Here is the input.
Amino acid sequence: MGQFASLTNLTMPEVVSLFVQSVQDTAVALSDLNVIIQGLTPPSLGTPPPVYTDLSQAATAAISAANSDSAVLFPAIFPAILLPPSSQDAGVVLNYQPAGDTSLLTNQIMDDFLNWGIQQPKSEVVLMANSLQSQVDSSDFTPSTTYGVLDINNASPLEQILGWVAAFGVCRTGYNPDGGFTQAVIYSFRAAVGVSELVTL
Here is the structure.
């Protein structure tokens, strides 16, 4: 999968520094970052984003764009679920390996859920991680958003769901010795539990 550099335990400058250190081809990385920024900046913000020529500034803007996009997407998809401000994760997956082991992604989601007070069986998170990685791998360097719903099993008389959204973009960082590109993934992820909108009270 790769290594997570997350804003849940690092500052933005630290995440960006780790990303910049991983880049072997600045021109290629800048090109992809600008595509991510353009693709994930919500139109509702009004002003179109500039074209960045500085790698650190571009990486910061790309992470911020993904985070803004997921912030706009969540209430649009799940208007009945209150999203706590702290229930967000964003950053970079360094040295991303397409079609690789999803255990690191599963662990990152489980850690997020633990930090956000969400209890969810690991078996369902594994399925969620597999779906997310499949969508990243099939995105073909096109910035994308996705969302999903997991059922919550508890003693509540109301049917509860866990709603989640993710915004992401794949960025080339250099070249593999055996051909192809090294990659990173800019991402943002949010999730919260609420009453299903399909329930009639």
User: Anything to note?
Assistant: The chain has five helices and five strands.
